[in-house]
Amino acid sequence: MGPSQRAGEHQKARASDSKIDVKGTKAMRKMMAKAKKIKITISVYEDLLVELRKMAESTGTPYQSLLNKLLKDAIMLKKSEGTRLDWLERELERLKKKLSA
């Protein structure tokens, strides 16, 4: 038996000794089931698609996954901007009332 065979057996033994976190895997499966992707068809400008594919290639990410991430980031940014703006407007109204009192 050579050293590489012994190393392989050693790795197999370690893998079989590991315990499965049933709660963790159940939670992970539940989370993944909720986050399903839906296929859509969209029209985009050719130059944008070229740039997207360049970005994807430079990061090693599939371009559709990168597009999904960029879209998600943009939506989350808009949401947070809206939330901050709402907070500022409420704060401004509160200060106006305080000054007029």
Outline the structure in words.
The chain is an all-alpha fold. The chain has one domain. Helix content is 79%, strand content 0%. It has four helices and no strands. It has helices at 3-17, 22-34, 46-59, 63-100. The longest helix is centred in the C-terminal third of the chain and has 38 residues, at 63-100.
Characterize the largest beta sheet: strand count, sense, and whether it forms a barrel: none
Helix content range:
over 70%
Q: Strand fraction band?
A: under 5%
Work out the radius of gyration.
25 Å
By DSSP (H or I, 4+ residues per run), the number of helices equals 4
- Span between termini: 89 Å
How many distinct domains? Answer: 1
Tell the overall outline.
flat
Structural class by helix and strand composition = mainly alpha
Number of strands: 0
State the low-pLDDT regions, or none: none
| H and E order | HHHH
Summed over residues and divided by their number, the pLDDT gives a mean of 83
Task: Write the topology of this structure.
Blueprint: H1 3-17, H2 22-34, H3 46-59, H4 63-100
Features:
single chain; 4 helices; mainly alpha; 101 residues; 0% strand; 79% helix
Give a quick summary of the entry.
The chain has 101 residues and is an all-alpha fold.
